[in-house]
Amino acid sequence: MIMEKELLIKKAHEGYTVCYADECPLRQQCLRWQVGQHVPDTDSTYRCVNPHFEGVATTDCPMYRKDQKVRFAKGMTHIFTSDMPKRTEPAVRYGVISLTNRTYYFEYRNGSRLIPPKLQEDIRDLFRENGWTGKVTFDDYVEDYNW
Questions:
Q1: What whole-number distance in Å separates Cα of residue 86 and Cα of residue 142?
Q2: What is the value of pTM for the model shown?
């Protein structure tokens, strides 16, 4: 996928961690490699993936970020309903905090931080583990790159 050059340059200026593993089989579809191609010559320093880190530049690269948009959830102010078992809400709330941290929990809750697909599934799992078999619905959904 060809991304907008302006977006890549913007991410480079924001300090996004880039990669220069030209031998990587995933580089053409990796956000980190694509942004790395747009770091301006005027920047004297930048954040870069350690090429010696285990798995880098392989098909299982832990730093790989796919250059396709994914569906993020935005907000979870209405995620707890009155017909849920009483123990569900505190268990899920503390579960999300233990997966992330207290600040992130409140940012996820009020929608100021997007909830990535993996965390959405972890939250659904927390509901199931705590007795809720109904549908888990977030406030809204947006498409964006999983930077």
A1: 30
A2: 0.78
Do residues 118 and 43 touch, judged by C-beta distance below 8 A? Answer: no
Query: Do residues 36 and 1 make contact, with C-beta atoms less than 8 angstroms apart?
Result: no
Phi, psi (deg, nearest 5) at residue 81: -115, 160
What's the pLDDT at 3? 62
Instruction: Give tens-digit pLDDT for 60-72.
Output: 999 999 999 999 9
Q: How far apart are CA 40 and CA 42, in angstroms?
A: 5
Q: Decide: residue 76, CB within 10 A, 0-12 exposed, 13-18 middle, 19+ buried.
A: buried
pLDDT digits over 10-60, tens only?
888 788 999 999 999 999 999 999 999 988 888 888 899 999 999 999 999
Which candidate, 55, 16, 62, places its Cα nearest to that of 35?
Answer: 16
- Burial (CB < 10 A; 0-12, 13-18, 19+), residue 139, is middle
In the chain, the amino acid numbered 133 is T
